[in-house]
From TrEMBL:
NCBIfam families given in the database record: PRK08290.1
Organism listed in the record: Mycolicibacterium moriokaense
Signal peptide (UniProt feature, chain positions): none
Domain of life: Bacteria
Keyword presence, NADP: no
InterPro entries reported for this sequence: ClpP/crotonase-like_dom_sf, Enoyl-CoA_hydra/iso
Pfam family, one: ECH_1
Official protein name in the record: Enoyl-CoA hydratase
GO molecular function terms noted in the UniProt entry: catalytic activity
One GO term (biological process): fatty acid beta-oxidation
Record key words, sorted: Lipid metabolism
């Protein structure tokens, strides 16, 4: 897309050893439209291609890390319409298809294959999370090697109780949360606070909100002290062990079940949206005329 807004910002620190990528849609709580995801992939690839970069920090401007997929804002709706406003990668990836096939191809490209590639990035990655991380936000942070959080961070996936879906497209819930907690959070729409996420090992560090940026950098600098090849050998070894236990196959199966949920939703549209979003996020969504609250956070 020509003249795309800068929804993702990229900078390097510590003589280039640390790259920091910022989600830059604070007024929309960093909701992820297609342009943001394309720019995010470009930023990750830029860091991966830079031999000086050892650690990549994924951060977000504003009060909340991310409100999930953006399916209702004007910018997001425009991206879905045929014509020059649509990003080239969107046009070539299923835009000419119809129905379930079209949705399948687009979600595979934007929400599954991208995330899986970021998980295996040839750099060490650290997610810096503050405020709410809702639904698709989990895909971004779960793709990272480490998650550090502010003491006010909260994690949730509300698509099951709001849309009758099994969870977001990158279905790492049983691995990140454990089977029983994954079922509980998905079936109730409850959120997990930073302390709870730390206790189960999902979050590596908790910092006071006012100190989050500085202390995340300090943590990244510690990791960057390790020689690059050693860090990548550790990352590859741990990821390979997870894959041998069935992680990647479970992800693939979860994605296909998610698409079945879409098909059911499109036919029956039975859900009554029993779970409310956090007030600050819900206020943003309800401010847009004609928007159906809940379909925004698939």
């Amino acid at each position: 897309m020509t003249d795309s807004p800068e929804l993702v910002q990229y900078e390097t620190l510590d003589e280039g050893r640390i790259a920091r990528i910022w989600l830059n849609r604070p007024d929309e709580h960093n909701a992820q439209n297609r342009t943001l995801l394309v720019q995010l992939d470009d930023a990750f690839r830029r860091a991966e291609a830079d031999d000086d970069v050892r650690v990549v920090v994924l951060a977000a401007r504003g009060k909340n890390f991310s409100a999930g997929h953006d399916l209702g804002s004007e910018a997001s709706l425009l991206e879905r319409q045929p014509g020059p406003a649509q990003h080239e990668s969107f046009r070539r990836d299923g835009a000419s298809r119809e129905g379930v096939e079209r949705l399948y191809l687009q979600e595979w490209h934007y929400f599954f294959d991208n995330t899986r590639r970021w998980r295996d990035l040839r750099k060490v990655t650290v997610a810096q999370v503050q405020g709410n991380a809702i639904s698709a936000a989990l895909m971004l942070i779960w793709a990272c090697d480490f998650i550090v959080a502010s003491d006010d961070a909260r994690f949730s996936d509300v698509v099951a109780v709001r849309l009758g879906m099994p969870g977001v497209e990158y279905y790492a819930h049983p691995w990140e949360l454990g089977p029983r907690l994954a079922k509980e959070l998905l079936m109730t729409g409850d959120s997990l606070d930073a302390e709870g996420a730390y206790r189960i090992g999902m979050v590596s560090k908790i910092f006071p909100r006012a100190e989050l940026e500085d202390r995340t950098l300090a943590f990244a600098r510690r990791v960057a002290e390790l020689p690059t090849i050693a860090a990548l050998l550790v990352k590859d070894s741990v990821n390979a062990a997870s894959d041998a236990m069935g992680f990647t196959e479970a992800l693939r199966h979860g994605f296909h079940i998610h698409q079945l949920g879409h098909a059911h939703w499109s036919v029956h549209n039975e859900n009554k949206y029993p779970v409310a979003l956090p007030p600050d996020v819900a206020d943003w969504r309800s401010a847009r005329p004609g928007q159906v609250i809940g379909r925004d956070t698939l």
